[in-house]
């Protein structure tokens, strides 16, 4: 199997839809010899901040000298980004080899009368097999959707469970109330595990997580809002924080926004848990926070005019983006290019970005089955009082044409748009 054939096979499984439940993935992994067993997993669920939290934890463990597997979704520019070893994406040859191995097990599964796994289940199985073959010390494992019935939740004894900020997203699948959504996220909590609960917008989340922790005899560790930002510029953020176990001075991160300080706090608490059992020095935490990168999250890609990429893909994410605009871009004219998938609260999201942007250009999210049709998007743009340029590349070029060198372009609304825009802008820059 070639790399191209591997990707074709993986993407062909999209037709099997999204089926939440562990029966399929459990059976597939059994046929593969259960590669997930024996892995030391830090399991991360939540609505917002999962990826950044994973990036901080991953980098800290690398700085401590460990071999670290990182599993995240979606990818920005290359599929291989989803499965990494010490920040290096799985190479094409290895992806092809493991996909072929998994495909053969799926064929046997089908012959025995079981259902075909979904795309996410297939990718998760590939990830587990890769991490097993690479003999990693830790896996930082990001939940795909929800938690309780997410394919990653086949992990039986995680080292630590982290639950990041919970908000309203995927309500058609996870439920329409914050309590229901929190319950689904809490599904990753296992018997006798340590659970780190990030700072939350909604008090009800704490009640739900606390109840599940008691039922599972899990130790709940709540992140405390005890930090002080010393400096916050487009070059980075310096902050102090205090936890029940320590005082940390002059921590620095390159990821921008107060919410990234709060994601970094999740990593501080993970560090405190892990150092009780493993040889991890404070220096690894400091370097991990400083060197962590997570593209597409208030990422400054171009300086003149300023071009910022932000995968604010739901209402809470858009609120954070708006706050960051007020902090970092309050002296600039902002032109926003926005692409949103149809299962999101697009009217609220557009209204939020309109509050800080002088011009808003609505565009289509490329290559996504959940994207609006051109006709639907045109109707939405009229309804919301924004401009519409169907092709995201033309929308970006139009936005740049509206800007002087002191202005800013923000590209936001979907990680799929941000990833495609990132590739397009980098190719534009390479031709200059």
From TrEMBL:
Concerning SUPFAM superfamilies, the annotation shows:
MurD-like peptide ligases, catalytic domain, MurD-like peptide ligases, peptide-binding domain
Give UniProt keywords alphabetically. ATP-binding, Folate biosynthesis, Ligase, Magnesium, Metal-binding, Nucleotide-binding
Query: A GO term (biological process) for this protein?
Result: folic acid biosynthetic process
| UniProt keyword Nucleotide-binding, yes or no | yes
* Stretches assigned to the Mur ligase C-terminal domain: 296-414
Alphabetical GO CC annotations of the entry are:
cytoplasm
Which pathway or pathways does this protein act in? Answer: Cofactor biosynthesis; tetrahydrofolylpolyglutamate biosynthesis; Cofactor biosynthesis; tetrahydrofolate biosynthesis; 7,8-dihydrofolate from 2-amino-4-hydroxy-6-hydroxymethyl-7,8-dihydropteridine diphosphate and 4-aminobenzoate: step 2/2
Q: Where is the Mur ligase central domain?
A: 44-270
Molecular-function GO terms, alphabetical: ATP binding; dihydrofolate synthase activity; metal ion binding; tetrahydrofolylpolyglutamate synthase activity
Catalytic activity, as annotated = 7,8-dihydropteroate + L-glutamate + ATP = 7,8-dihydrofolate + ADP + phosphate + H(+); (6S)-5,6,7,8-tetrahydrofolyl-(gamma-L-Glu)(n) + L-glutamate + ATP = (6S)-5,6,7,8-tetrahydrofolyl-(gamma-L-Glu)(n+1) + ADP + phosphate + H(+)
Q: Which PROSITE patterns does the entry link to?
A: FOLYLPOLYGLU_SYNT_1, FOLYLPOLYGLU_SYNT_2
Enzyme Commission number: 6.3.2.12, 6.3.2.17
Among Pfam families, the record links this protein to: Mur_ligase_C, Mur_ligase_M
Name what cofactor the protein needs.
Answer: Mg(2+)
State the family named in the UniProt similarity comment for this chain: Belongs to the folylpolyglutamate synthase family.
Assembly and binders:
Monomer.
Q: What is this protein called?
A: Dihydrofolate synthase/folylpolyglutamate synthase
Which species is this UniProt entry from? Answer: Caldicellulosiruptor bescii (strain ATCC BAA-1888 / DSM 6725 / KCTC 15123 / Z-1320)
């Amino acid at each position: 199997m070639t790399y191209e054939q591997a990707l074709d096979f993986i993407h062909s499984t999209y037709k099997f839809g999204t089926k939440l439940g562990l029966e399929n993935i459990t059976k597939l992994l059994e046929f593969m010899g259960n590669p997930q067993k024996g892995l030391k997993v830090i399991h991360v669920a939540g609505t917002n901040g999962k990826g950044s939290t994973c990036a901080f934890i991953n980098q800290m463990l690398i700085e401590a000298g460990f071999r670290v597997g990182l599993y995240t979704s979606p990818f920005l520019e290359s599929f291989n980004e989803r499965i990494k070893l010490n920040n290096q994406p799985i190479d094409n040859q290895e992806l092809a080899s493991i996909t072929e191995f998994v495909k053969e097990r799926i064929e046997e599964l089908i012959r025995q009368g079981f259902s075909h796994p979904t795309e996410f289940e297939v990718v998760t199985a590939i990830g587990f097999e890769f991490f097993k073959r690479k003999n990693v010390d830790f896996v930082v494992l990001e939940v795909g959707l929800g938690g309780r019935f997410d394919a990653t939740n086949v992990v039986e004894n995680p080292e630590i469970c982290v639950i990041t900020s919970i908000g309203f997203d995927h309500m058609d699948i996870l439920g329409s109330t914050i309590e229901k959504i929190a319950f689904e996220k809490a599904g990753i909590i296992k018997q006798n595990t340590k659970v780190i609960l990030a700072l939350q917008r909604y008090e009800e989340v704490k009640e739900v997580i606390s109840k599940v922790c008691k039922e599972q005899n899990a130790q709940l560790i709540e992140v405390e809002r005890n930090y002080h930002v010393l400096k916050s510029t487009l070059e980075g953020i310096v902050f102090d924080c205090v936890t029940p176990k320590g005082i940390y001075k002059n921590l620095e991160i390159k990821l921008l926004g107060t919410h990234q300080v709060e994601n970094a706090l999740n990593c501080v608490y993970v560090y405190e848990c892990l150092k009780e059992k493993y040889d991890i020095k404070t220096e690894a935490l400091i370097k991990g926070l400083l060197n962590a990168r997570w593209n597409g999250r208030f990422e400054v890609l171009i300086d003149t005019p300023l071009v910022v990429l932000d995968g604010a893909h739901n209402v809470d994410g858009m609120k954070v983006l708006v706050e960051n605009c007020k902090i970092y871009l309050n002296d600039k004219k902002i032109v926003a290019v926005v692409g949103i998938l149809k299962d999101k609260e697009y009217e609220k999201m557009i209204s939020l970005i309109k509050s800080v942007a002088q011009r808003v250009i609505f565009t289509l999210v490329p290559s996504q089955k959940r994207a609006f049709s051109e006709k639907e998007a045109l109707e939405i743009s009229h309804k919301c009082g924004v401009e519409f340029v169907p092709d995201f590349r033309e929308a970006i070029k139009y936005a740049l044409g509206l800007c002087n060198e002191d202005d800013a372009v923000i590209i936001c609304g979907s990680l799929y748009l941000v990833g495609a825009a990132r590739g397009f802008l980098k190719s534009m820059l390479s031709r200059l």
